[in-house]
Design brief:
There is one protein chain. With about 500 residues, this protein is mostly helical. The chain folds into four domains: about 170 residues, P-loop containing nucleotide triphosphate hydrolases (Rossmann fold, 3-Layer(aba) Sandwich); about 130 residues; about 80 residues, no CATH class; about 70 residues, no CATH class. About 60% of the residues lie in helices and about 5% in strands. A five-stranded parallel β-sheet has the order 2-3-1-4-5. Strand 2, helix 4 and strand 3 form a beta-alpha-beta unit. Helix 5 packs across helix 6 and helix 8 runs antiparallel to helix 10. The longest helix has 24 residues. The protein is flat, with a radius of gyration of 31 Å. It starts with a helix and ends in a 13-residue tail after the last helix.
Length: about 500
């Protein structure tokens, strides 16, 4: 029997079509797919079989002389129109069936999966494989599903390259499975003592308690005493590697077997990043889960179970804010002290940094105090109860700073300049300075333009105008230059993203 005849057996094509739809829908990867068939006739038949299957994505067939099959592919657009749609990551056309067309020259970076049911060799095979190896966002590589045995031919085609290049160019799914299981063992070992085997069956308070216990385990040192930054960052790094490998392996049997656990690790990882202070940039920016990995969680637990871990017995949500008295009271009662410290630390740091974006002078010392408190706790200078007490006191200090700022009667901009000027010990806080900063805002805003920080002329003019206003208001020459620099630096912070429609809202 001729190869084409053997490949074209209806029962075989039907089973392959079913396998393709099942694999495509259960991949851990997003992105589009291409099915490569042995002939135009088989391409048309495969297209028909795929479209008839329940759950199949939107599919098109791209072949030369499609008019010869007009009774079978009625309604198909021209190849140029299909190409435009296929190249658009947001277009619902997710899969194409081809024979020869599009195997060379087509550049679709978000093409992540190719299903081969056509023998190819040497240069033709390398060109076809190249369709799936384009870089796109956080795409790690292309996935090849082989139904006809191109692996040996691909090895031969790669033989002209050195060993490291060959090993990097083609990695078997078995190797990825083994790496996935290695990372799985590492992550699982970091949660020793936590029983999350039935986490998907938990709800409400029990689910929240499990998340609290797990996060507390990750952020606490092996002795169970203080915070452990390295341990937390290791979990973030190792869980990220596991998630990436698992996404690549799905829907392999081994991936399915650990799917529930990996879902749990994803949820915990998301909670850690959202609720605790994460210093390592690679754990945040090294991989964008939203763009590559489907949300596999079977429950919508983000709001009730992960983000709001304090909503245990209450039906109403607590306003998680450093200014909310009820939240601070709830924080004191939390069972896991290190988790309480981390959440408070995150809220305080975010709140202070938000304020510092508009007024560095007023709030910078509070950030330094926060960092000192955490350092003392990590060095065991103070215990967990004491640091929680001090963190809550710091929240009150932020409230006090906000209240005093509001009492000045100045706008956010005016207050920033007021604090910059009066930060110098020789300058008294009085009505004269308040009137001065109101004038400062006007003269500085007068010269601002879009992208003004790249104009040396505008920057020099702002400095000159500030210097002149200070001298005019009886500031001494030796202090004028220092205050001019303070005002200029504050202007960079306040107006770095200036646009004519900019509006400053008070955060007090």
């Amino acid at each position: 029997m001729h190869l084409t005849q053997a490949v074209s057996v209806p029962d075989r094509l039907k089973k392959i079509a079913e396998d393709i739809v099942n694999h495509f829908n259960n991949r851990g990867l997003e992105g589009k797919a291409m099915v490569v068939t042995i002939s135009r006739k088989v391409a048309v038949e495969m297209h028909k079989l795929l479209k008839e299957l329940p759950g199949a994505p939107e599919i098109a067939v791209v072949i030369s002389k499609p008019e010869e099959f007009k009774d079978d592919i009625v309604g198909e657009m021209r190849a140029s129109e299909l190409e435009k749609r296929f190249k658009n990551p947001e277009d619902p056309l997710k899969m194409v069936v081809v024979c020869d067309m599009w195997l060379t020259g087509l550049d679709v970076p978000h093409l992540t999966t190719m299903y081969f049911d056509k023998p190819l060799k040497n240069h033709s095979l390398m060109q076809a494989i190249a369709r799936v190896n384009r870089i796109f966002k956080d795409k790690q590589g292309g996935l090849i599903v082989d139904y006809i045995g191109i692996a040996d031919d691909l090895k031969k085609a790669l033989s002209i390259y050195d060993t490291p290049t060959r090993n990097e160019a083609m990695v078997s799914i078995e190797e990825i499975v083994n790496k996935m299981l290695e990372k799985y063992d590492v992550v699982k070992s970091m949660l020793n003592g936590v029983d999350y085997s039935k986490w998907k069956y938990l709800e409400g308070e029990k689910l929240s308690q499990l998340f609290q216990q797990t996060i507390n385990t990750i952020i606490t040192d092996p002795k169970g005493e203080t915070l452990d930054e390295k341990k937390k960052e290791r979990f973030l790094k190792e869980s990220l590697a596991l998630i990436k490998l698992h996404a690549f392996v799905m829907p392999h049997k081994e991936a399915y077997e650990i799917k529930s656990d990996v879902d749990f690790f994803k949820a915990i990882r998301g909670a850690l990043i959202k609720q605790t202070v994460v210093r390592s940039e690679i754990t945040l920016t090294g991989f964008d889960l939203d763009s590559t990995i489907k949300e596999l969680l079977s429950k919508s637990i983000a709001a009730e179970g992960i983000i709001d871990i304090f909503a245990l017995k209450r039906k109403e949500k607590i306003d998680i804010s450093i200014l909310d008295e009820r939240f601070l009271e709830e924080a004191k009662k939390l069972k896991y002290k290190n988790l309480t410290i981390e959440v408070l630390r995150k809220l305080l740091e975010d709140g202070i940094k938000l304020r510092m974006r508009r007024n560095n002078v007023r709030y910078h010392s509070l950030l330094e105090l926060l960092e000192k408190l955490i350092e003392e706790y990590e060095n065991r200078v103070i215990n967990s109860s004491k640091v929680i007490e001090r963190l809550i006191e710091l929240a009150q200090e932020i409230k006090k700073a906000d209240r005093e700022a509001k009492e000045t009667g100045l706008s956010v901009e005016e207050l920033a300049f007021y604090d910059a000027i009066t930060s110098k010990k020789m300058i008294k806080q009085d009505e004269r300075i308040k009137e001065l900063v109101k004038k400062l805002v006007k003269i500085i805003r007068k010269d601002l333009t879009i992208d003004w920080t790249n104009s040396e002329i505008i920057k020099a003019k702002i400095r000159d105008n500030v210097r002149f206003l200070l001298l005019k208001n009886d500031f001494k020459p030796e202090e004028t230059e220092e205050i001019t620099n303070l005002i200029y630096q504050q202007s960079l912070v306040l107006y770095r993203d200036y646009s004519p429609a900019s509006v400053f809202l008070s955060i007090c």
